[in-house]
Structure to design on (606 residues):
């Protein structure tokens, strides 16, 4: 049977009002974002009819800025409590953005009448991040479960091929005189139809090296040469001198030349009458379909989240309303709480068990013999079991720790990094499909800069990314160094082979946790892909799953001991966590209730 897709145009909706939604797979190829196609099924629906069975249909809405926009509706399937709908929905996928969705399941009666079966509120990230990219939800109406909704996602495959390059240079001309060596990088440019030159790629900078080996990279053929293998591509080599770009030399080639291996070395053209600029060698070139972040998720990769919170004295006591750690009696969130919610709400969609190790640094935890500052301590009070369950567990244990930890200093990152590096090393050695993301929340300068840089350079070969959120108005110069575009370099001159750090100051977004999350997470898929390409790990095969068995099986409970009640500074064992399904049900119920309270506008398409 032919698959049917919705169209916003057919619904009379202006697509510009709904950024991030593309409902036509052919048009989707023009976008910079990957696309996913959603397939909908229901199981064990409540029978709403007396003399027959429910005739189900699903309406789908995107929730954006407290307004619901209709994406379309499925066909109606007559007399079926376990329907598999043929109409699908193709949507832009943005890892860094919370993309909220509302599924409304109805029973269609005669004469265009209908009655509600129930609602499901979720996010696209929850669906894509679920195991096998299939999520099962309770269909609820007034807290009563009226069946199950199964949402499966698949990446929309485009037809565009990717060109992969590995480029180096030899004997480049030094533009910095006798006492300094050029730090070269290159740009690829092509001519547009109106004879304008546009930059399509810029490489990394290789510091102080006249024989540079640049990072391998891939670029869509459409972007490189608009699919024309005979179109000339210009490669220009630059260095920076006193804040200005200086052209070392340039050369021109075509994809056709590279494919036929007619030429792989190119002498750079002189920009003046002085010495030769050098030689460019294209060591590796290939055309093919490059794996994407969604391909790895489909193959079973999951993101493990770890959190580290700053307990240095410069934050101020939580009892002081002006403190960065202030716990406001009116329920207002401080910057630490907003950052945790904004970032972890998205990341935990890709963490199957929602078990999060939470650490503190820069304070003195109660119940320890020493009064020395600890630069890495588990907020649970149990170093062998630092885990909590989900966002609620993180925020609860953070609030509890504020009354148990003596704020002190200085601020060190290296011990926290070593701890999380140990987790990433173990996962790598075991061949695990887990990639760890460490979220560090801090209020200012770090005092072990070189040790931190050394750790990050070591971490570049591990399945690890580090997100740093700067809280307050302190000097964050060191953080910008860690997130520098030119890469990190230790005291021995060793440079990090990839970028794994993203720093964002919280105040840049004036308390908007959604915008913070968008910027802070934007680089994660890129960093993930750079690691997978560096260690040459291909996406795994998608596991087959019986969705009927999944619906009828018992709810999945997280394994292992997880702290459900903070026990910092107290003896005892880990409490029993709340079941995943119970927490998710309550979240969806709250979301539905909030939507009603806020008076969200629902647009009917019947």
């Amino acid at each position: 049977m032919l698959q049917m897709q919705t169209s916003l145009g057919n619904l009379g909706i202006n697509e510009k009002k709904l950024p991030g939604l593309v409902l036509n797979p052919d048009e989707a190829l023009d976008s910079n974002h990957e696309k996913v196609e959603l397939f909908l099924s229901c199981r064990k629906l409540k029978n709403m009819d007396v003399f027959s069975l429910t005739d189900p249909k699903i309406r789908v809405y995107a929730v954006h800025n407290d307004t619901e926009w209709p994406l379309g509706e499925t066909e109606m399937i007559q007399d079926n409590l376990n329907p598999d709908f043929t109409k699908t929905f193709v949507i832009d996928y943005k890892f860094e953005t919370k993309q909220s969705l509302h599924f409304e399941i109805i029973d269609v009666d005669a004469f265009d009448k209908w009655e509600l079966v129930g609602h499901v509120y979720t996010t696209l990230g929850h669906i894509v991040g679920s195991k096998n990219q299939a999520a099962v939800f309770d269909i609820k109406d007034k807290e009563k479960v009226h069946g199950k909704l199964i949402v499966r996602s698949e990446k929309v495959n485009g037809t565009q091929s990717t060109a992969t390059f590995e480029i180096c240079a030899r004997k480049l001309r030094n533009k910095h005189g006798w006492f300094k060596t050029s730090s070269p990088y290159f740009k690829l440019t092509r001519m547009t139809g109106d004879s304008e030159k546009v930059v399509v790629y810029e490489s990394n900078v290789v510091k102080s090296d006249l024989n540079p080996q640049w990072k391998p990279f891939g670029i869509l053929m459409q972007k490189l040469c608009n699919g024309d293998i005979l179109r000339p591509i210009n490669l220009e080599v630059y260095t920076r001198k006193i804040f200005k770009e200086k052209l070392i030399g340039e050369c021109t080639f075509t994809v056709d030349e590279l494919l036929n291996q007619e030429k792989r070395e190119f002498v750079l053209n002189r920009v003046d009458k002085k010495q030769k600029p050098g030689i460019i060698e294209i060591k590796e070139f290939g055309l093919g379909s490059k794996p994407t972040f969604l391909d790895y998720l489909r193959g079973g990769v999951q993101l493990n989240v770890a959190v580290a919170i700053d307990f240095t004295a410069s934050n101020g006591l939580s009892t002081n309303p002006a403190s960065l750690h202030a716990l406001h009696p009116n329920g207002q969130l401080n910057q630490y709480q907003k950052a945790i919610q904004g970032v972890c709400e998205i990341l935990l969609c890709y963490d199957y068990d929602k078990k999060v190790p939470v650490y503190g640094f820069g304070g003195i935890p109660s119940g320890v013999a020493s009064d020395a500052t600890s630069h890495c301590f588990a907020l649970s009070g149990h170093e062998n079991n630092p885990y909590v369950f989900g966002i609620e567990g993180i925020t609860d244990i953070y609030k509890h720790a504020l009354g148990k930890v003596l704020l002190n200093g200085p601020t060190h990152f290296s011990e926290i990094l070593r701890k999380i590096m140990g987790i990433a090393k173990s996962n790598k050695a075991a061949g695990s499909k887990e990639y760890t993301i460490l979220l560090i929340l801090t209020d200012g300068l770090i005092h072990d800069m070189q040790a931190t840089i050394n750790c990050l350079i070591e971490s570049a070969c591990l399945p690890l990314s580090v997100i740093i959120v700067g809280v307050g108005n302190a000097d964050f110069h060191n953080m910008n160094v860690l997130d520098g575009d030119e890469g990190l370099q230790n005291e021995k001159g060793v440079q990090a082979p990839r970028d794994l750090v993203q720093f964002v100051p919280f105040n840049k977004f004036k308390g908007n946790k959604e915008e913070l999350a968008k910027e802070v997470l934007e680089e994660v898929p890129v960093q993930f892909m750079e690691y997978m390409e560096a260690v040459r790990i291909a996406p795994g095969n998608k596991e087959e799953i019986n969705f009927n068995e999944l619906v009828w099986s018992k709810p999945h409970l997280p394994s292992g001991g997880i702290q459900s009640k903070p026990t910092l500074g107290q003896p005892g064992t880990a409490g029993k966590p709340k079941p995943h399904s119970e927490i998710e049900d309550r979240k969806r119920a709250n979301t539905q209730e909030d939507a009603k309270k806020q008076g969200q506008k629902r647009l009917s398409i019947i």
Summary: The longest strand covers residues 144-155. The CA atoms of residues 130 and 352 lie 7 Å apart. The chain has 14 helices and 26 strands. Residues 580-597 form the longest helix (18 residues).
